[in-house]
Amino acid sequence: MQVRYWDREVETQDRESLEEKQLEDLRVTVAVALNTPFYRKRLASVGMQSAEDIRTMEDFYKIPLTSKDDLRDAFPYDMLAVPLEQVVRLHASSGTTGIPTVIYHTRGDLEGWTELAARSMTATGMTRSDVFQNMMTYGLFTGGLGLHYGGEHIGSLVIPASSGNTKRQFKLMKDFGTTVVHATPSYLLHLHGKLGGEGISTADLALKKAFVGAEPHSENVRKKIEDLFGIDVYNSYGLSEMNGPGVAFECEYKNGMHLWEDAYIMEIIDPVTLEDREDGAGGELILTTLKRTATPILRYRTRDLTSIYPDECPCGRVHRRISRIKGRTDDLLIINGVNVFPSQIEEVIMKMPESGTNYQILVEKSGALDKLTVKVEVGSQVFSDDARDLNALIERVKDNLKASISISPAVELHEHGCLPVYEGKAKRVFDLRNGDADDIIKR
Ligand code: DLL
Q1: pTM for the structure as a whole
Q2: Residue 100 has pLDDT above 70, yes or no
């Protein structure tokens, strides 16, 4: 395979020089972070007053972890490290608490992000000859603007379609010969379901690749999208606190996401004991920005569960790869004492040929016990079959789930198009034990 680099020197440098530069950039980042009231206090709590206190990585590990709550508590300006005149944009993500987490960017920060986005997209083989239709939402969410500027930087034709309006998405794809799309995996599955209704077949499209991210998805979902559209699908990981998309991206080998270590220091810790985990052992991803000046963040708890692949990638990039995100530490469902990650359920559903592309997971109280219900969309032909076949299918879904999660859930089959779809991140899990009642379809 002919490997395409955006910045060969940075991508293929040797490990030693990468780590030396990380330490150098870390000192600069700490010096900048000390401009903020938040980090002045935080670093003083471990006796650090200046960047000179960071001599080795051992010193770095003494810095306390930063959490999403810290970012919220610092709202609006306690984590801003430069005068407001130098800030040219902000992005924000809203949480359940109502106080958003805000990340500010200087012009230089945005240029750095654009470089990472261009590097990521190039790693999949995308070039200036591609037509890139960006179906991620533009706005405070980082999915739209992040790769938009990356695509322009490469020199490809960027169509800022934003999310939603399926009909228009198809029209744009056909009219301009879109070759690469960027969307959430759930939206691409939804889009495929609508193709037939619009009288379009995948053969009418020039599509070659899709970048998917912003929400958890299994390897089986990737395969499903690849088979349905006949394209290559690349996993893209990022979070607004670390810019957005362009933090880690798959290369053409599609075997884990290269996390750009010249821009971030990554660690994997045990989310309970907070102890460091060896390479290869799974845990929570902790990230530190190395190139940002408006909102530097030190040792951020992403809550995302992943592991670092210890082996080298055949593409020759020095930046280590992380595995597909297995879930979030706050995703874990404890059902009658058994730990279940929604991703385990998705994997089972997507592997079954009868199941469509959409599903919901419901947890509620039934007396003193927890009850798990999995709702699965299936093709309409399933409902025209004999009722015995329908029951047999329900039993098969149940058995497969039991084998994976050790719990036998209630299973409901729904016709395609009955469960809600989302243009942005899909919401699949409803834990009614916490009063999470929005959007549930009438049962
Ligand atoms: O979702 C940034 C993004 C946009 C990434 C477009 C990729 C593509 P936030 O809204 O801040 O930012 O949400 C970040 O989404 O901590 C993960 O839990 C989840 N996430 C993002 N990418 C993936 C992925 C954007 N590829 C949160 N697989 C993160 C699984 C993902 N989860």
Answers
A1: 0.90
A2: yes
Mutate to test the pocket of ligand 1, among 163, 325, 328 (most ligand atoms within 8 A of CB): 325
Per-residue pLDDT, 443: 38
Q: Assess whether pLDDT exceeds 80 at residue 238.
A: yes
Q: How far is the CA of 167 from the centre of ligand 1 (A)?
A: 26
Burial degree of 304 (CB within 10 A; 0-12, 13-18, 19+): buried
Domain 333-434: state its class.
alpha beta
Q: Give the rounded percent of residues in the chain with a pLDDT score beyond 70.
A: 97
Ligand 1 lining (C-beta closer than 6 Å): 93, 136, 141-143, 213-216, 235-240, 244-245, 302, 304, 325, 328
- Correct CATH for 1-330 of 3.40.50.720, 3.30.70.270, 3.40.309.10, 3.40.50.12780: 3.40.50.12780
Atom of ligand 1 nearest to the CA of 147: 6
Average pLDDT score over residue span 119-128 = 98
Q: How far is the CA of 440 from the centre of ligand 1 (A)?
A: 23
Give 27 Cα–ligand 1 centroid separation in angstroms: 28
Which of 304, 307, 328, 422 has most ligand 1 atoms within 8 Å of its beta carbon, as the pocket-test mutant?
A: 304
Domain boundaries, the chain: 1-330, 333-434
Percent of the chain with pLDDT over 90: 79
